[in-house]
Amino acid sequence: MIRCVVLASGSGTKLQSLLDSIFFGEIPELEIVAVISSDPEANALTRARNARIEAVDIHREVFPNESTFDLAVRNKIRDLDADLVIDAGFHPGVGPETARAFRNKIIAIQPSLVPAFQDLRGLAVHEAVLARGLKLTGATAYLVDEQGEIGTVLLQKAVEVRDDDDATKLQRRVLRQAEWILLPEAVRLWCSGAFEVRAGRAKRVK
User: Fold this and answer.
1) Can you give the pLDDT at residue 206?
2) Could you give the count of Cα atoms lying within 13 Å of 63 in the half-sphere of its Cβ?
3) Is the pLDDT of residue 41 over 80?
4) Rounded-to-integer distance, Cα 22 and Cα 20, Å
5) Would you say the C-alpha torsion 160, 131, 13, 151 has a positive or negative sign?
6) How many domains does the chain have?
7) Cα angle: 16, vertex 111, 67; to 5 degrees
8) pLDDT per residue over 8-35, tens digit each?
9) Helix 43-50 and helix 13-23: axis angle, to 10°?
10) 93: Cβ–Cβ under 8 A, 6 or more apart, which residues?
């Protein structure tokens, strides 16, 4: 089994997509051993407890800076002997030292078709899509690079932008039609050894 730690600071809907995929046997090699959150009130921790998974609160506000917070997260991941880390909406994100320590072992998702709007997060992505009048948007599953940013692209999925969309409606559709699908699929393929990463590109070998 591949031991996995999920990082999640919000409602935990992307975490739930992973839990559902495991429940239905779609990722047979994966075991989520803990969920780490930077917010003690995050619903992601409730989802973890309901699934009888260790719920870890590493509250960002008790640390003097990003470096010490990142160290605490990294040490906990190491204590859990994790083979894979999944960023399922973690704030303030994966720190550079942790990214380097787990190179090519951190999977995350961006609610845009990278490289479009890759410097934006959350609702700001969808506001920018609408402001540009785009007809397609989507999501990108990727490996976190050594700076903690968007690195090697694993999978992408397009989503239609509709004329009556506002940012909130578009955000929900991208979640349902792309993010909740892509993240478990990228994890499944990674766990099965289907990706070969060379020179910053992921090639499907299975």
Assistant:
1) 75
2) 16
3) yes
4) 5
5) positive
6) 1
7) 80
8) 999 999 999 999 999 999 999 999 999 9
9) 20
10) 87, 148
- Alpha carbon distances (Å) from 128 to 93, 115, 170, 171: 21, 13, 11, 12
Query: Which CATH number is 160's domain given?
Result: 3.40.50.170
Residue reference for tokens 């709007």: 117
Two tokens, residue 83: 């083979």
Q: What's the distance, CA 81 to chain centroid? A: 19
Classify residue 204: in a domain, yes or no: no
List, for residues 92-131, the tens digit of each pLDDT value.
999 999 999 999 999 999 999 999 999 999 999 999 999 9
Are residues 40 and 10 in contact, defined by beta-carbon separation less than 8 angstroms? Answer: no
Residue 152 included in any domain: yes
Q: In what order do the strands lie in the sheet with 2-7?
A: 54-57, 30-37, 2-7, 84-87, 106-110, 136-144, 150-160
Tokens representing residue 180 in the block: 């909740």
Angle at 79 between CA 76 and CA 80, to 5 degrees: 90
CA-nearest of 42, 45, 127 to 32 is 45
Closest CA to 171 of 126, 124, 203, 116: 126
This prediction has a pTM of 0.96
Q: Which domain holds residue 177?
A: 2-199
Amino acid at 137: T
